[in-house]
ABC transporter ATP-binding protein (Polaromonas hydrogenivorans), 250 residues
Amino acid sequence: MKTLLQTEALIKRYGAILVTDQVSLDVREGELHAIIGPNGAGKTTLINQLSGELGSDSGHIRFGDEDVTALGINARARMGLVRSYQITSVFDEFTVLENATLAALGARTHAFRFWRSLLGDREALAAAQEGIEAAGLSARTHAPASELGYGERRQLELAMALAARPKFLLLDEPMAGMSVQESAAVVALLKSLKRKYTILLVEHDMNAVFALADRISVLVYGRLMVTGTPEEIRGNEEVRAIYLGEEEIA
Ligand SMILES: Nc1ncnc2c1ncn2[C@@H]1O[C@H](COP(=O)(O)OP(=O)(O)OP(=O)(O)O)[C@@H](O)[C@H]1O
Protein backbone atom coordinates (compact mmCIF):
# COMPACT_ATOMS: atom_id res chain seq x y z
CA MET A 1 0.00 0.00 0.00
CA LYS A 2 1.17 3.49 -0.90
CA THR A 3 2.00 6.00 1.82
CA LEU A 4 -0.45 8.92 1.79
CA LEU A 5 0.82 10.91 4.75
CA GLN A 6 4.33 10.93 6.12
CA THR A 7 6.03 12.90 8.85
CA GLU A 8 9.76 13.20 9.23
CA ALA A 9 11.28 14.03 12.61
CA LEU A 10 8.39 16.30 13.52
CA ILE A 11 8.96 18.42 16.61
CA LYS A 12 6.74 20.71 18.67
CA ARG A 13 8.11 22.43 21.74
CA TYR A 14 6.38 24.35 24.49
CA GLY A 15 9.21 26.14 26.26
CA ALA A 16 11.70 23.48 27.27
CA ILE A 17 9.19 20.64 26.84
CA LEU A 18 9.31 18.58 23.68
CA VAL A 19 5.66 17.71 23.20
CA THR A 20 6.26 15.88 19.94
CA ASP A 21 9.78 14.61 19.70
CA GLN A 22 11.16 13.54 16.30
CA VAL A 23 7.92 11.87 15.23
CA SER A 24 8.37 9.96 11.97
CA LEU A 25 5.09 8.35 11.05
CA ASP A 26 3.68 6.95 7.84
CA VAL A 27 0.02 6.38 7.14
CA ARG A 28 -0.84 4.23 4.15
CA GLU A 29 -3.57 5.01 1.70
CA GLY A 30 -6.85 3.38 2.76
CA GLU A 31 -5.76 2.29 6.22
CA LEU A 32 -7.27 3.16 9.56
CA HIS A 33 -4.27 4.05 11.68
CA ALA A 34 -4.77 4.66 15.39
CA ILE A 35 -2.54 6.62 17.72
CA ILE A 36 -2.65 5.63 21.35
CA GLY A 37 -0.64 6.70 24.35
CA PRO A 38 -0.99 7.85 27.94
CA ASN A 39 -2.50 11.22 28.87
CA GLY A 40 -0.26 14.09 27.84
CA ALA A 41 1.71 11.96 25.35
CA GLY A 42 1.24 14.56 22.62
CA LYS A 43 -1.50 12.91 20.55
CA THR A 44 -3.72 15.97 20.16
CA THR A 45 -0.67 18.14 19.49
CA LEU A 46 0.37 15.77 16.69
CA ILE A 47 -3.15 15.87 15.18
CA ASN A 48 -3.02 19.68 15.32
CA GLN A 49 0.37 19.69 13.60
CA LEU A 50 -0.98 17.41 10.86
CA SER A 51 -4.14 19.46 10.30
CA GLY A 52 -2.14 22.68 10.16
CA GLU A 53 -3.82 24.16 13.20
CA LEU A 54 -0.41 24.21 14.83
CA GLY A 55 2.94 24.93 13.19
CA SER A 56 5.89 22.63 13.79
CA ASP A 57 9.26 23.73 15.16
CA SER A 58 11.09 21.38 12.82
CA GLY A 59 10.53 18.35 10.65
CA HIS A 60 8.42 17.77 7.57
CA ILE A 61 4.90 16.67 6.70
CA ARG A 62 4.24 15.19 3.28
CA PHE A 63 0.75 14.59 1.95
CA GLY A 64 0.67 12.62 -1.28
CA ASP A 65 3.50 14.04 -3.35
CA GLU A 66 3.52 17.44 -1.67
CA ASP A 67 5.40 18.89 1.26
CA VAL A 68 2.61 20.59 3.22
CA THR A 69 4.70 21.62 6.23
CA ALA A 70 4.37 25.33 5.47
CA LEU A 71 0.69 25.23 4.48
CA GLY A 72 -2.10 26.42 6.74
CA ILE A 73 -5.20 24.58 7.83
CA ASN A 74 -7.44 25.73 4.95
CA ALA A 75 -4.92 24.92 2.25
CA ARG A 76 -4.43 21.44 3.67
CA ALA A 77 -8.21 20.92 3.92
CA ARG A 78 -8.61 21.88 0.27
CA MET A 79 -6.05 19.19 -0.59
CA GLY A 80 -8.20 16.65 1.25
CA LEU A 81 -6.44 16.52 4.62
CA VAL A 82 -9.37 17.27 6.90
CA ARG A 83 -9.84 17.23 10.61
CA SER A 84 -13.32 16.58 11.95
CA TYR A 85 -14.94 19.90 12.92
CA GLN A 86 -12.12 22.03 11.53
CA ILE A 87 -13.92 23.53 8.56
CA THR A 88 -16.35 25.68 10.44
CA SER A 89 -18.02 25.52 13.80
CA VAL A 90 -21.59 24.31 14.09
CA PHE A 91 -24.24 27.02 13.85
CA ASP A 92 -27.01 26.11 16.26
CA GLU A 93 -29.78 27.92 14.43
CA PHE A 94 -28.93 26.20 11.13
CA THR A 95 -30.20 22.76 10.22
CA VAL A 96 -27.97 19.72 9.87
CA LEU A 97 -28.18 20.10 6.08
CA GLU A 98 -27.32 23.81 6.17
CA ASN A 99 -24.33 23.21 8.45
CA ALA A 100 -23.04 20.40 6.25
CA THR A 101 -23.56 22.52 3.11
CA LEU A 102 -21.56 25.34 4.68
CA ALA A 103 -18.76 22.88 5.40
CA ALA A 104 -18.85 21.66 1.79
CA LEU A 105 -18.66 25.25 0.51
CA GLY A 106 -15.90 26.11 2.96
CA ALA A 107 -13.79 23.27 1.66
CA ARG A 108 -14.00 24.60 -1.87
CA THR A 109 -13.81 28.33 -1.58
CA HIS A 110 -11.87 30.84 0.48
CA ALA A 111 -14.94 32.62 1.80
CA PHE A 112 -18.55 31.61 2.22
CA ARG A 113 -20.78 33.15 -0.38
CA PHE A 114 -23.66 34.15 1.80
CA TRP A 115 -25.31 36.30 -0.83
CA ARG A 116 -26.25 33.17 -2.71
CA SER A 117 -28.83 30.80 -1.36
CA LEU A 118 -26.99 28.37 0.86
CA LEU A 119 -28.83 25.36 -0.45
CA GLY A 120 -28.77 26.63 -4.04
CA ASP A 121 -25.29 25.28 -4.72
CA ARG A 122 -26.06 21.85 -6.12
CA GLU A 123 -22.59 20.41 -5.77
CA ALA A 124 -22.23 21.55 -2.15
CA LEU A 125 -25.72 20.30 -1.37
CA ALA A 126 -24.95 16.88 -2.84
CA ALA A 127 -21.67 16.67 -0.88
CA ALA A 128 -23.55 17.68 2.29
CA GLN A 129 -26.21 15.01 1.76
CA GLU A 130 -23.53 12.36 1.16
CA GLY A 131 -21.73 13.42 4.34
CA ILE A 132 -24.91 13.33 6.38
CA GLU A 133 -25.79 9.89 5.09
CA ALA A 134 -22.28 8.51 5.67
CA ALA A 135 -22.35 9.91 9.21
CA GLY A 136 -25.66 8.13 9.86
CA LEU A 137 -27.60 11.34 10.42
CA SER A 138 -30.08 11.26 7.52
CA ALA A 139 -33.09 11.08 9.84
CA ARG A 140 -32.08 14.45 11.29
CA THR A 141 -31.31 16.24 8.00
CA HIS A 142 -33.76 19.08 8.59
CA ALA A 143 -33.40 19.38 12.36
CA PRO A 144 -31.78 22.54 13.71
CA ALA A 145 -28.39 21.75 15.22
CA SER A 146 -29.64 23.10 18.55
CA GLU A 147 -32.01 20.12 18.81
CA LEU A 148 -29.30 17.48 18.46
CA GLY A 149 -28.19 15.34 21.36
CA TYR A 150 -24.48 15.12 22.25
CA GLY A 151 -23.82 12.01 20.16
CA GLU A 152 -25.75 13.42 17.20
CA ARG A 153 -23.73 16.62 17.39
CA ARG A 154 -20.51 14.63 17.11
CA GLN A 155 -22.08 12.84 14.12
CA LEU A 156 -22.80 16.26 12.60
CA GLU A 157 -19.15 17.23 13.03
CA LEU A 158 -18.21 14.06 11.19
CA ALA A 159 -20.83 14.75 8.50
CA MET A 160 -19.32 18.22 8.04
CA ALA A 161 -15.83 16.78 7.67
CA LEU A 162 -17.13 14.23 5.14
CA ALA A 163 -19.02 16.95 3.23
CA ALA A 164 -15.61 18.45 2.48
CA ARG A 165 -14.96 15.24 0.49
CA PRO A 166 -11.69 14.45 2.23
CA LYS A 167 -9.07 11.92 1.23
CA PHE A 168 -7.71 11.76 4.73
CA LEU A 169 -9.66 12.17 7.96
CA LEU A 170 -8.06 13.18 11.24
CA LEU A 171 -10.28 12.17 14.16
CA ASP A 172 -9.41 13.23 17.70
CA GLU A 173 -11.32 11.19 20.27
CA PRO A 174 -14.61 10.86 18.37
CA MET A 175 -16.04 8.75 21.20
CA ALA A 176 -15.14 11.08 24.06
CA GLY A 177 -18.07 11.71 26.38
CA MET A 178 -20.31 9.19 24.63
CA SER A 179 -22.46 6.51 26.22
CA VAL A 180 -21.64 2.84 25.55
CA GLN A 181 -24.42 2.70 22.94
CA GLU A 182 -23.28 5.89 21.23
CA SER A 183 -19.66 4.64 21.14
CA ALA A 184 -20.81 1.36 19.60
CA ALA A 185 -22.67 3.34 16.94
CA VAL A 186 -19.53 5.36 16.14
CA VAL A 187 -17.45 2.17 15.89
CA ALA A 188 -19.99 0.80 13.40
CA LEU A 189 -19.92 4.10 11.54
CA LEU A 190 -16.12 4.17 11.34
CA LYS A 191 -16.14 0.56 10.10
CA SER A 192 -18.41 1.70 7.28
CA LEU A 193 -15.96 4.52 6.43
CA LYS A 194 -12.90 2.27 6.40
CA ARG A 195 -11.18 1.98 3.00
CA LYS A 196 -13.29 4.82 1.58
CA TYR A 197 -11.08 7.25 3.45
CA THR A 198 -7.66 7.05 5.00
CA ILE A 199 -8.22 7.68 8.70
CA LEU A 200 -5.92 8.68 11.55
CA LEU A 201 -7.73 8.11 14.82
CA VAL A 202 -6.70 9.25 18.28
CA GLU A 203 -8.83 7.43 20.82
CA HIS A 204 -8.65 6.32 24.44
CA ASP A 205 -11.31 3.62 24.05
CA MET A 206 -9.06 0.61 23.56
CA ASN A 207 -11.91 -1.70 22.58
CA ALA A 208 -12.76 0.68 19.76
CA VAL A 209 -9.11 1.07 18.70
CA PHE A 210 -8.44 -2.67 18.61
CA ALA A 211 -11.71 -3.34 16.79
CA LEU A 212 -11.03 -0.74 14.11
CA ALA A 213 -7.33 -0.20 13.48
CA ASP A 214 -5.26 -1.77 10.73
CA ARG A 215 -2.15 -0.45 12.46
CA ILE A 216 -1.53 1.26 15.76
CA SER A 217 1.23 3.69 16.72
CA VAL A 218 2.09 4.22 20.37
CA LEU A 219 3.19 7.68 21.44
CA VAL A 220 4.91 8.09 24.81
CA TYR A 221 6.27 11.42 26.07
CA GLY A 222 6.10 12.76 22.52
CA ARG A 223 8.09 9.90 21.03
CA LEU A 224 6.77 7.28 18.67
CA MET A 225 7.61 4.09 20.52
CA VAL A 226 6.31 1.46 18.12
CA THR A 227 3.97 0.98 15.17
CA GLY A 228 2.37 -2.38 14.47
CA THR A 229 -0.74 -4.39 13.82
CA PRO A 230 -3.19 -4.74 16.72
CA GLU A 231 -1.75 -8.22 17.42
CA GLU A 232 1.80 -6.89 17.49
CA ILE A 233 0.85 -4.03 19.81
CA ARG A 234 -1.15 -6.31 22.09
CA GLY A 235 1.84 -8.62 22.39
CA ASN A 236 4.41 -5.86 22.95
CA GLU A 237 5.79 -6.03 26.50
CA GLU A 238 6.87 -2.38 26.62
CA VAL A 239 3.41 -1.24 25.58
CA ARG A 240 1.77 -3.48 28.16
CA ALA A 241 4.04 -2.02 30.85
CA ILE A 242 3.08 1.53 29.91
CA TYR A 243 -0.60 0.73 29.98
CA LEU A 244 -0.48 -1.11 33.30
CA GLY A 245 -2.85 0.78 35.56
CA GLU A 246 -4.13 2.87 32.66
CA GLU A 247 -6.63 1.85 30.02
CA GLU A 248 -6.88 -1.89 29.52
CA ILE A 249 -5.46 -3.11 26.26
CA ALA A 250 -8.25 -5.12 24.75
N1 LIG B 1 -0.58 25.33 24.41
C1 LIG B 1 0.20 24.62 25.25
N2 LIG B 1 1.13 25.21 26.02
C2 LIG B 1 1.90 24.50 26.83
N3 LIG B 1 1.85 23.16 26.97
C3 LIG B 1 0.94 22.51 26.23
C4 LIG B 1 0.06 23.19 25.33
N4 LIG B 1 -0.74 22.27 24.72
C5 LIG B 1 -0.38 21.08 25.23
N5 LIG B 1 0.61 21.21 26.13
C6 LIG B 1 1.27 20.12 26.86
O1 LIG B 1 1.73 19.20 25.92
C7 LIG B 1 1.60 17.87 26.41
C8 LIG B 1 0.86 17.04 25.39
O2 LIG B 1 -0.50 17.46 25.31
P1 LIG B 1 -1.55 16.79 24.32
O3 LIG B 1 -2.86 17.39 24.60
O4 LIG B 1 -1.04 16.83 22.94
O5 LIG B 1 -1.51 15.28 24.84
P2 LIG B 1 -2.52 14.09 24.56
O6 LIG B 1 -1.69 12.87 24.32
O7 LIG B 1 -3.49 14.45 23.50
O8 LIG B 1 -3.27 13.98 25.96
P3 LIG B 1 -4.74 13.43 26.32
O9 LIG B 1 -4.71 11.96 26.03
O10 LIG B 1 -4.86 13.71 27.77
O11 LIG B 1 -5.72 14.18 25.47
C9 LIG B 1 0.93 17.97 27.76
O12 LIG B 1 1.90 17.88 28.74
C10 LIG B 1 0.29 19.32 27.72
O13 LIG B 1 0.20 19.86 29.02
DSSP finds nine helices and eleven strands in the chain. Residues 14, 19, 37, 39-45 surround adenosine-5'-triphosphate (CB under 6 Å).
